[in-house]
């Protein structure tokens, strides 16, 4: 049964097939999609950076190219960690619905935290004034003060939500194993 696992890429279909939780199955699909999109952004960003700085000799530019890859790993790693943790658990000890759901929810929280971190780190000159969201006849204005609060935070604070949620993924894994 464990022979259909097939390593990191095989963990995705393996975890999807062996989990009893629909929440986790949804996370496998959305987490894999998000990890793929982030990976493409990092690769394309790295290509653009290398093309823009190709004529300049090494040194600090080599460090900035490596930094792109490091940031990409810090985002993709926690996106795929719940899937890899659940696949490993199913291979070793079997199914536990509570474990699967908890890791899926922490994975979704990480996705949201990356978005919140990006909103916090938007430069002041690129920020648009928050306005109520209108969806047909419904107007939602509850998020306006939240967005304004996030804009008012220092840009470096944008690292805190993803870091806390990444630690929560690892903490949930350790607590429930």
What's the short story on this structure?
With 177 residues, the chain is mainly alpha-helical. The protein has helices spanning 7-18, 22-52, 60-92, 97-120, 143-152, 160-176; strands at residues 133-135, 138-140. The chain has six helices and two strands; from the N terminus they run H-H-H-H-E-E-H-H.
Please provide a written account of the structure.
With 177 residues, this protein is mainly alpha-helical. It has one domain (2-176). Helices cover 72% and strands 3% of the residues. The chain has helices at residues 7-18, 22-52, 60-92, 97-120, 143-152, 160-176; strands at residues 133-135, 138-140. The chain has a two-stranded antiparallel ribbon. Keywords: Membrane, Transmembrane, Transmembrane helix.
Q: What fraction of residues sit in β-strands?
A: under 5%
Uncertain parts: none
Strand order of the largest sheet: 1-2
Total number of distinct structural domains: 1
C-alpha termini separation: 21 Å
Treating each run of at least 4 consecutive H or I residues as one helix, how many helices? 6
Over all CA atoms, what is the radius of gyration? 19 Å
Please state the structural category. Answer: mainly alpha
Q: Please trace the helix and strand order, writing H or E for each element.
A: HHHHEEHH
What share of residues is helical?
Answer: over 70%
Instruction: Provide mean pLDDT, rounded.
Output: 89
Structure keywords:
two-stranded antiparallel sheet; transmembrane helix; 6 helices; DUF8056 domain-containing protein; 177 residues; mainly alpha
